[in-house]
Amino acid sequence: MTVRKPYVRSMEGWWNRVPFFRRYMAREVTAFFVAVYGLVMLAGLVRLSQGQAAFEGWLAQLRGGWSIALHVVLLLVFMYHTYSWFEIMPKTMPPVVIGGRKLAPGTITGLGLAAAAAASTLVLVIAWVLAR
Amino acid sequence: MSSLPETRTIVVEVLRYQPDKAETPYLEKFDVPFTDDMSVLQGLQYIKDHFDGSLTFRWSCRMAICGSCGVMIDGVPSLGCKTFMRDYYPKGFRVEALAHFPIERDLVVDASDFIDKLPRIEPWIEPKLKKPLEQGEYLQTPAQLEQFESFSHCINCMLCYAACPQYGLDQKFLGPGLTALAHRYKADSRDGEHPARDELIHSTEGVWNCTAVGYCSEVCPKHVDPANAVNQNKTASALGWFARVIPGGRR
After folding, report:
1. Binary contact (A18, B76; C-beta < 8 A)
2. Burial grade of B12 (CB within 10 A; 0-12, 13-18, 19 or more)
3. What is the CA radius of gyration of chain B?
4. Which domain range does residue B48 map to?
5. Measuring CA to CA, how many Å separate B106 from each of B22, B111, B157, B175?
6. Is B76 close to A24, i.e. CB distance below 8 A?
7. Residue of chain A minimizing CA distance to B141
8. Which residues from chain B sit within 8 angstroms of residue A3, using beta carbons?
9. Closest alpha carbon within chain B to A5
10. Which residues, other chains included, contact B110 with Cβ-Cβ below 8 Å and sequence gap of 6+?
11. Are B116 and B240 contained in the same domain?
């Protein structure tokens, strides 16, 4: 009769074990940056409720060097966020059957990214028209 | 006249655990001669036959059907029979028991948790309409088959469990493979009511425990895509919840 002593391994540092886990953690951490941008927008709303002078002060702050730097970082992170979001999308959907064949994951990701690019362009155009 | 295949030597590092000899697992290196057609499983068999007969590991079919020889190869959940030593030459590679399961001995894990959970998903068909045998088979259209067919390819190798950090952190989680198997029956047009299965899937032990890492689908040797099964059921679970709380909704 041999001894039975099942050995349980530690999970410490699991997120650093394979590149896939590191990419997963990067995807999850981008959500934090989305929250940061949400707070920036929320601050604008609070300043708007405090009157014109307060709101214009907030606008002036947005034009500052640190703010521009933050927005560049946010833009880059959001681009990765968008990519990672649509990369996982095929795994979150029921099969889309067109003409008797399942739509390939790559097609779903591509369509999602195209939709995101189209929506961003639309928002930019609207903002540009309003700002003229 | 054909020449003999070229033999090279590769360093295979194995995580050993011999509970009657040592308290904790330790690494042991072996110089294994191999030819291009030799799998990692054959490498382990070579070690057992020539260096150390006590090396313990599971295997059976040698052709990626039985799902017995799952191990971690350089930290990646893999079938020993479907991975070739030539791909690790000249660096060598490390073999460990499947992650997230207790190690019983060397490369053999204790799979009781998986086995105990298996019947809880009721992996069988309870016909929607029971009919006598003389009325013939329960027919399905190709489109109905398409809904679940890929999820029926699971060989219970548990690589997806070794790939799922959420399962490693919380053993209460039903896990990727069994959710995929549950979905295989749920998505089958012939299957009827399974209240116990539905409750398990929609509980926090079920699909809501998944954090959508997605590595399970990446390592699956049969392309079952458990992450898809889990997430399809999150949607179904959320819609079911809304249907119950919204007045005039279903149920």
Report:
1. yes
2. buried
3. 22
4. 8-109
5. 11, 14, 17, 24
6. no
7. A100
8. 19-20
9. B19
10. A6, B101, B102, B103, B104
11. yes
Q: Which residues of B touch A (CB under 8 A)?
A: 17, 19-20, 24-25, 75-76, 99-100, 102-105, 110, 142-143, 146-147, 165, 168-169, 211-215, 217-218, 225, 227-228, 231-232, 234-235
pLDDT digit string (tens) for A53-110? Answer: 999 999 999 999 999 999 999 999 999 999 999 998 998 888 787 877 788 889 999 9
Q: Which fold has domain A14-131?
A: 3 helical TM bundles of succinate and fumarate reductases (1.20.1300)
Among residues B92, B109, B126, the one where a domain terminates is: B109
Tens of pLDDT, residues B77-130: 999 999 999 999 999 999 999 999 999 999 999 999 999 999 999 999 999 888
Q: How far is A94 from chain B (nearest CA, A)?
A: 6
Looking at chain A from residue 69 to 128, which residues have their Cβ under 8 Å from any Cβ of chain B? 88, 90-95, 97, 100, 102
| Same domain? B212 vs B117 | yes
- Contact B104/A8, CB-based, under 8 Å? no
Total CB pairs under 8 A between chain A and B: 73
B43 and B95 within one domain: yes
B151: Cβ contacts below 8 Å, ≥ 6 apart:
B180, B181, B183, B184, B187, B224, B225, B229
Residues B122 and B48 both lie in one domain: no
Residue B12, strand partner residues: B30, B93
Confidence of residue B217 (pLDDT cuts 50, 70, 90): very high
Determine the distance in angstroms separating the CA of B217 from the nearest CA of chain A, rounded to an integer.
9
Contact B151, B224 (CB under 8 A): yes
Contacts of A56 (CB under 8 A, 6+ apart): none
B53 lies in the same domain as B105? yes
Q: CB of B240 within 8 A of CB of A119? A: no
Residues B119, B218 within the same domain: yes
* Cα of B249 to nearest chain A Cα, Å: 22
**Residue B13 to residues B84, B92, B154: CA-CA distances in angstroms?**
15, 8, 29
Q: How many CB atoms lie within 10 A of CB B185?
A: 20
Q: Mean pLDDT throughout B224-243?
A: 88
Among B46, B35, B37, B53, which residue's Cα sits nearest to residue B12? Answer: B46
